Automatic annotation (TrEMBL):
<dbReference type="InterPro" id="IPR051547">
    <property type="entry name" value="TDP2-like"/>
</dbReference>
<keyword id="KW-0540">Nuclease</keyword>
<keyword id="KW-0255">Endonuclease</keyword>
<dbReference type="InterPro" id="IPR036691">
    <property type="entry name" value="Endo/exonu/phosph_ase_sf"/>
</dbReference>
<keyword id="KW-0378">Hydrolase</keyword>
<dbReference type="Pfam" id="PF03372">
    <property type="entry name" value="Exo_endo_phos"/>
</dbReference>
<dbReference type="GO" id="GO:0004519">
    <property type="term" value="F:endonuclease activity"/>
</dbReference>
<protein>
    <submittedName>
        <fullName>Endonuclease</fullName>
    </submittedName>
</protein>
<feature type="domain" description="Endonuclease/exonuclease/phosphatase">
    <location>
        <begin position="19"/>
        <end position="253"/>
    </location>
</feature>
<dbReference type="InterPro" id="IPR005135">
    <property type="entry name" value="Endo/exonuclease/phosphatase"/>
</dbReference>
<dbReference type="GO" id="GO:0016787">
    <property type="term" value="F:hydrolase activity"/>
</dbReference>
Length: 262
C-alpha cells in the first residue's frame, strides 16, 4: 500500500495551475492508494458545482487525475474555517480503494468557521481487500497555543480511533520531531507509531525549510508532516516528495510518501 500526505497551500502558490498538474501527474505515476491533503480550499463566493464549489482545489485535482486515466478516486473533504476572508479552507482524503464509511469531527473547542483556529478532521474507512483500515487527514495547531491546547486536540483525535481497526493519521501536525517533550513526543505517548522511524529505507524526513505561515522566524529544517500508524506495521520506505529533488516543489510544505506491506 502506498500513501501520500501533503499540505497543499492551495490557491496561494505562484504558478498554481502548473503545480496542480504536477501533483496530479505524480499521483498517477506513483499510484498512491490513499492521499491526505491539508489546506484544500475553495472560494467562498464561487458558484456550486455538485457537492463542492467551482474551483474547489480537490475537485480540480480529481478532474486532472481523471484526465490522466485515474478515474476511481473519491474525495472526502471537511470544511474547517474561512481563510483570508475569501477562502473556505479544509482538509481532505482521496482514495482509489473502496470507501465503506466516512465521517468528520472537530478537534478544537471552537466549531465556528469564522475563527481561524477551528480545525476538523475527516475520516474514511477503506476496504483493503482482506481488512478494513481507517485513515484520517490531520492539520493540528501549535504546541504553545493556550486558546486551543495541543494536548486537547490530540485527545479528541485519538478518542475517535476504532479499537479493532488499523488506523493511519496523516498530515501536518505543526510540531517538529526534533523538539523534545512537545507535540511529537505527545503523539508517540498516545501509542502512535511514526512510519518514518519504522521505515527500512528513509531520507532526512525534512518537510519544511525556513519561514512559512505559522513558523515565522524559523531558520532550521523541520519535520512536521507525518504518517502515523495506530500499531506497528512493516514500512518498506519513507520518502519526502515535492522537495525539488524528488519531484518539483508544489507547496510551502514538502510531501511524505510511504510504502507499507499490509
Amino acid at each position: 500500500m502506498k500513501l501520500l500526505t501533503l499540505n497543499c497551500h492551495s490557491w496561494q502558490e505562484d504558478q498554481q495551475l502548473e503545480k496542480l498538474d504536477i501533483l496530479a501527474k505524480t499521483i498517477t505515476e506513483r499510484d498512491y492508494d490513499v492521499i491526505a491533503l491539508q489546506e484544500v480550499s475553495q472560494l467562498t463566493d464561487a458558484p456550486a458545482e455538485g457537492t463542492y464549489k467551482k474551483g474547489h482545489f480537490g475537485l480540480e485535482l480529481l478532474k486532472r487525475l481523471s484526465s490522466f486515466g485515474r478515474k476511481d478516486d473519491r474525495m472526502h473533504w471537511s470544511f474547517c474555517h474561512y481563510g483570508y476572508d475569501i477562502y473556505e479552507e479544509g482538509v481532505a482524503l482521496l482514495s482509489r480503494l473502496p470507501v465503506t464509511e466516512m465521517d468528520s469531527f472537530f478537534i478544537t473547542k471552537s466549531i465556528d468557521p469564522d475563527h481561524w483556529k477551528t480545525r476538523a478532521v475527516p475520516r474514511i474507512t477503506v476496504d483493503a481487500g482482506n481488512r478494513l483500515i481507517d485513515f484520517y487527514s490531520c492539520h493540528l495547531g501549535w504546541w504553545s497555543d493556550d486558546e486551543e491546547p495541543y494536548i486537547d486536540q490530540v485527545e479528541r483525535l485519538i478518542e475517535k480511533q476504532h479499537p479493532d481497526r488499523l488506523s493511519f493519521y496523516m498530515g501536518d501536525f505543526n510540531n517538529h520531531a526534533g523538539l523534545k517533550k512537545e507535540g511529537y513526543d505527545l503523539l508517540l505517548s498516545k501509542g502512535l507509531k511514526d512510519t518514518y522511524t519504522l521505515a527500512e529505507t528513509k531520507d532526512s524526513g525534512t518537510t519544511v525549510f525556513g519561514e512559512i505561515a505559522g513558523w515565522e522566524g524559523n531558520a532550521q529544517p523541520l519535520r512536521i508532516d507525518y504518517i502515523f500508524a495506530s500499531e506497528p506495521v512493516k514500512v518498506k520506505s519513507s520518502k519526502v516528495i515535492f522537495n525539488g529533488e524528488h519531484h518539483p516543489v508544489v507547496s510551502d510544505h514538502f510531501g511524505v510518501e510511504v510504502e507499507i506491506e499490509i
